[in-house]
Fold this protein.
Amino acid sequence: MPNQSMISPDGDRPAIRMAQLLETLAQTTEEQQRQLLPELERLLAGLNGTERSRQGPEGHYASPAAEEGGQPQYDGELFERLFSQSPNGLLVVNERGEIILTNRRLVEMFGYTINELTGQPVEVLVPETDRERHTRLVNRFMKSPRHRPMGSPLSLAARHRDGTIIPVDINLGPVETGQGKFVIATVRDITERTQMEAELAEVQRRLLDSTEAERLKLARDLHDGPMQDLYSISFQLQSLQAAFPEADPERIREIQSMIEKVTGNLRELTGELRPPALAPFGLGRAIRSHVEKLRQQYPNTNFHFELAEDHKSLPEKVRTVLYRVFHQAVANALRHGLPADIWIVFQLEPESAYLEIRDNGRGFNVPARWVELVRDGHYGIVGLVERAESIGGTLKVESTPGIGTQVSVRIPRRGEDQIAAKRGLQPR
């Protein structure tokens, strides 16, 4: 196995050009890769001892154009300076999964020397618990290699020499040459980015918790304040009517009717802020209670249930988020889809809770990017995913114009202890 740095001052000049090629190949299209492959093949052959690297008159690597009398296209000193400051680690692995080439940034990232990594299986950089699975994935990848981000859409981790686990982004660029198959990996340490994402997720979670706390406080204030005052006024009117029988009874009935209407509106508002059945009876009962009211408002819509009884077995945050998703999804369907039927499914699984709201309404074209809905002033769906994601859940929206819409959410039953590592909204 070769033992040289791609950018070390003591390294061969062709290896410096190799670094530039590898960085390019790992991030280019297949057509661009084919154009660069002849040069890469010659360099790999030289690194494997089958061919001496060709150099210009001053020791700098000369491109094929220079051999035909042109000017050298690449200056080794320039590449050496550029790659010594590159923030990306570079790694080349052969089809046996052995490391044949690294750059300085990569060995610094993982705490090894170049000698220690060269010739080693790539699993030396993989956490011990993932090594067996990683070996299987490498073998599968080598059978059908293609340019792609490694692990997408999963979070990736690598192992430092001292055992520390490092979050990373890895892009794979397979190259087939006369010397065999190679994989070029660009490795980025994303520790700071991961920390920022975790902090943003915590801020998001705390904001949503604060919003729910404000909703509860407002519901209690409305119930204990204005609603009680209205009840008191209603009783006083009844007392006045008894004390003054000559008073206009029709007028008193009108006032009583107005009071009852305002009281009913406030009761409905407090119910939306904090469903009265959610805490004492669980999610299934709260859904049924709300749908009974909707049936009176929307007599032409049929509601169908398949609801598990959770009996308060879910954490309060999970129940609350699932109820918010149900409430918003049904409201969206009734307001925009005008469906004849709405199906509501709630299932309790050993590790998660699943909720699905499906309708046969108008449907809509799900945008490729949800920010398009936000720009149009539609925040409901985006708000739902923020809620689900805040406790480690995922939310999916599927819709077809003229057929209907389905909103589904799955949340770990220990939801408040888990924060999603990826965005939960998955348009299809």
Notes: The two ends are 47 Å apart (CA to CA).
